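QA checklist item 7 of 12: single-chain prediction sanity check.
[x] sequence parsed
[x] length recorded as 166
[x] structure emitted
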Amino acid sequence: MRRARPGAAPRGTTERALTSVGAGADFDEAERREAGEGRHPGREQERSTTERQVSKLWHITLSVSGREAPLKEVRRALEQLAHDHPFLLTSRYANDHAEIRYWEEARDLHDAAAVALRLWGEHRQSAQLPPWEIVGLEVIDRETYHQRIAEGYGPPPAAPVGVHPY
């Protein structure tokens, strides 16, 4: 007897694909609820088990490093990754490390981090990325990102979109 989710394919029978969680029609509605709009005083809102999870935007910074590779190959691979993953904002690279920054849409931090941690490995072959390993990951919500920028600390805005050397 095989134990799995109904309709799920057996493990190892399909190629894994990197996916994002869609925002859905209630994305803006959730932000209003978080801000306190739409609540009825004196009445608690019940959450049904069938209620859809609401997506948020998360700023991802993924750091990778490993053995030295020719700069031209690193640049070409990161450009291919940006083509394959269109939400990539910017990449900085050297011959032994790189930093990739982009926005991800997910229900919560755990989902955003899980997708980010799969990005490098799942695109390693298609983009011919160097065999580097992930050495750092930062996942912050949109509000925290903008607050950091407004206060003058944190990563500078990814103004020059694209792939750039350090």
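[x] summary fact logged: The first strand starts at residue 56 and ends at 65.
[ ] second reviewer sign-off
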